[in-house]
UniProtKB/TrEMBL annotation:
Residues 53-197 form the Glutamine amidotransferase domain. Belongs to the peptidase C26 family. Gene3D superfamilies: 3.40.50.880. It is found in: Cytoplasm, Cytosol. It comes from the Eukaryota. It comes from Camelina sativa. Its main location: cytoplasm. Pathway: Secondary metabolite biosynthesis. InterPro entries: ChyE-like (IPR044992), Class_I_gatase-like (IPR029062), GATASE (IPR017926). This is Gamma-glutamyl peptidase 5.
Length: 251
């Protein structure tokens, strides 16, 4: 018997920066190289430009990933309202959805959470987040050993201010109360960026400074967080892949 090809979709909620286009050929390739595996089919929907799959095609997919965005997840822009409606359908279907940054906030929004400006201000750079040991089930997508903490690249000005009742808090930090949460076995939400590397982060920081949206001093401090440390990129990759593919493995 031949295994059916697994199929996933990326809902891209941001435009491709010059660096990402030039170096990686676009964010789609960054996501697929981080979360994809050989033999899978990945489709791209630029939801920020109003590209969405037809409802009738949703069942063809094994899982979905929602990217970060410069837009506010609490906004009522047409495409954001449409994305919320689509995610509600995926929730009803119990489809696997991995929400990253903006995607994390969208999933919490549709489940009844409150999203708004980060109460402790913009978080940019490398941050260590603490796992809620009691909430993380051993043998699930985290593997058999639950790490006490993991380092991840952060880049956000909004956050989940109030978790929905149905959420399980999986991680927090001194900067953000909701770093990671889940809903049942089908929604996994991460405030940080498992797919980012130093180069991508620094380019975003420089762009935000050039747009006069951030002071140079703040930007320098954000970059300094990555001088002597690195994100636990491989562990994040394993967790996210395990979740999307519905398997458990040693992290």
């Amino acid at each position: 018997m031949v295994n059916e090809q697994k199929r996933f979709a990326l809902f891209l909620a941001t435009g491709d920066s010059t660096l990402v286009k030039k170096t990686y050929g676009g964010y789609f390739n960054v996501f697929v190289s981080t979360f994809g595996e050989e033999g899978e089919k990945w489709d791209l929907f630029r939801v920020i430009d109003g590209e969405f799959p037809d409802d009738k095609d949703l069942d063809k997919y094994d899982g979905f990933v929602i990217s970060g965005s410069l837009h506010d997840a609490f906004s009522d822009d047409d495409w954001i309202v449409k994305l919320c409606s689509l995610c509600q359908k995926l929730d009803d279907m119990k489809k696997k959805v991995l929400g990253i940054c903006f995607g994390h906030q969208i999933l919490c929004r549709i489940k009844g959470g409150k999203v708004g400006r980060a109460s402790r201000g913009v978080d940019m750079g490398l941050r260590t987040i603490t796992m809620v040991q009691d909430a993380v089930k051993p043998g699930g997508y985290f593997g058999t050993e639950i790490p006490k903490s993991l380092a991840i690249i952060k880049c956000h000005q909004d956050e989940v201010l109030e978790l929905p009742e149905s959420a399980t808090l999986l991680a927090y930090s001194d900067k953000c109360n909701v770093e990671m949460c889940s809903f049942g076995d089908h929604f996994l939400c991460i405030q940080g960026h498992p797919e980012y590397n130093k180069e991508i982060l620094f380019e975003i920081i420089d762009r935000v400074v050039n747009m006069k949206l951030m002071e140079q001093d703040f930007a320098d401090k954000a970059k300094a967080t990555m001088e002597r440390a690195e994100p636990d990129r491989e562990k994040w990759q394993t967790i996210c892949k395990n979740f999307l593919k519905g398997r458990s493995e040693q992290v």
